[in-house]
TrEMBL record:
Protein name per UniProt: Coproporphyrin III ferrochelatase
Major enzyme class: lyase
Protein family membership: Belongs to the ferrochelatase family.
InterPro entries: Ferrochelatase, Ferrochelatase_AS, Ferrochelatase_C, Ferrochelatase_N
Alphabetic keyword roster: Cytoplasm, Heme biosynthesis, Iron, Lyase, Metal-binding, Porphyrin biosynthesis
Binding locations of Fe(2+): H185, E265
Coarse class of the protein's main subcellular location: cytoplasm
This enzyme's EC code(s): 4.99.1.9
This protein's encoding gene: hemH
Subcellular localization(s) per the UniProt record: Cytoplasm
Record-level GO cellular component terms: cytoplasm
Catalytic activity annotation: Fe-coproporphyrin III + 2 H(+) = coproporphyrin III + Fe(2+)
Amino acid sequence: MSVSDQAPIGVLVMSYGTPESLEGVEAYYTHIRRGHPPTDEQLEDLTSRYRAIVGGVFPLRENTNRQVEALQRRLDELAGQGRYVCYQGLKHAAPFIEDGIEAMSRDGIERAVGIVLTPQYSSMSVGGYLKRAREAAERHNVAFAGVEKYHLHPVLIEALAERVTAGLDKAGVSADDGLVLFSAHSLPARILEMNDPYQDQLLETSKAVAEAAGISRWQFTWQSAGQTGQPWLGPDIVETLNGLAKENVKFVLVTPVGFVSDHLEVLYDIDIEAKRHASELGLALDRIQMLNDDPKYMQALADSVIGAAGRYDEKADAAGASGV
């Protein structure tokens, strides 16, 4: 193995991003809307949601920071300090995905692995992140390998199953008496015409977690659909709760398998909106604790990164064998 093979490998840890403060919500929302500023009503709606969950402080960005720091520590433990160097790249906030690749280039990184803090692949989510990262890497002459999915990593499934069991125990509900409701962020329904794997992978994760936790009563639902005037994947969690109430279900444990940290879609859409609606239906609702920087989640990420980095060596070996 050459000296260059021993050089540090950059790890671009990507996520959706969130504002650093309430004052940054407008710029953040404008970026999401591709440069079109929100109306006063739209801005107030989003800002009020952040106010409801953060109470005057803004810890949401810190969640991603802690995840990146924890992944760095785990990679150091597994591969030795300095072998991998983590950078952050966000879709809708600084440091943007392109900023992360540029920082790698400035630091002399020649090879990089990209991983998104979303276990399931969709061309509209993970695929878009990886495309931006790959294009930026090409501009900076950084070799790039992306992790497309890790939705069935056994340690990830174990960590989620433990949270389901803990959530039921906390509520004093048996696996047979409560219903576990797996959820994920909805996407435009047109992905079904594209043979996109997103829905299938979410169901695979849900099934694996249910089996690991010994759960037989579970369903899957969507949440947090955008207001774009086009159909989104459903049913939405509100519709699902309506149906469960009619079936005389008394307790629901929401398990957001499409999310990995505490953020707006969890702290507001589930903890406030869904819980309020469930209460109006006479339905008790709680959710699992999010993964955040859980050691087992970090293990799943680290394994995935190291596996992707190994493809460099496989390509090098293949090139050497063919005389390239």
